[in-house]
Amino acid sequence: METRLEHLQEKDEKATLRHQWVNYNQVSMHIKQAVIAAEDAKFIDHEGFDWEGIEKAYEKNKRRKKIVAGGSTISQQLAKNLFLSNQRTPWRKAEETIITLMLETILSKKRILEIYLNVIEWGNNVYGIEAASLHYFSTHAKDVNSFQSAKLASMIPNPKYYERHQDSSGLIERSGIILSRMSGASVP
C-alpha cells in the first residue's frame, strides 16, 4: 500500500488510498468462505504451502508454456503483500517461503486471514475488505451477502481489471463457481 501511495503521490500529491481496518468479527462469514474457496481451499489444513496446488500450477504452466496459474496460499500471498516488493527476483520466492513459515509459526489461521482481508488490493486505490465492500456495494464488510462475497473474491487475481469490467462474463462465471464452493470452505 505504501509503495502504491508513493507512486500515486508522484503524480498527485493529494492522492489517497481507500482503506479502513476491520477486526475479524466485523467481516461477514460469507466473505471469509468466498476468499478461502477462491484462493486457498486447504487453508485450514496446510502449514503455509499447498504442495498439490503448487504441483498443479506447475503442470498447467508447463503445458501452456507461460505462467497462467499460481499455487500460492493465502499465507504466501500475505507474506508477499506485507514484506516483499512486486519485483520478481531470483530470491523473492525464497524470501516468501521463509516469511510464510514465520507467519504460520507465530500467527493463528484466524489472524492470517484477518490481516490478508485487510491488506489485499480490490481495485484502483482500494485496499482491504471494508473499503472494497463500501466501494462496490455501499455496505460494510459485516453486511456483505453471499453473492457479493463471491464477486469480491472473484476479483482478487486482477482487481484493477475487474473494477473496470464488473459485468465481464469471466467475473460472473468465476463468481458462480466460488458461490457453489463456499459452503464447503472451512473457516477459522
Can you characterise this structure?
The model has no long low-confidence stretch (mean pLDDT 90). This protein has a single domain, classed as Biosynthetic peptidoglycan transglycosylase-like (Penicillin binding protein transpeptidase fold, Orthogonal Bundle), CATH 1.10.3810.10. Strand 1 and strand 2 form a beta hairpin. The chain starts with a helix and ends in a 7-residue tail after the last helix. With 188 residues, the chain is mainly α. It is built from ten helices and two strands, in the order ααααααββαααα. The radius of gyration is 16 Å and the shape is globular. A two-stranded antiparallel ribbon has the order 1-2. It is 58% helix and 3% strand.
Radius of gyration: 16 Å
In CATH, the topology is named Penicillin binding protein transpeptidase fold
**Amount of helix:** 55-70%
Assess the beta-strand content as a share of residues.
under 5%
Q: Give the domain tally.
A: 1
Main structural class: mainly alpha
| Largest sheet, spatial ordering of strands | 1-2
Shape descriptor reads globular
Helical stretch tally: 10
User: CATH H level: which superfamily?
Assistant: Biosynthetic peptidoglycan transglycosylase-like
The succession of helices and strands, N to C, reads HHHHHHEEHHHH
What is the CA–CA distance across the termini?
Answer: 26 Å
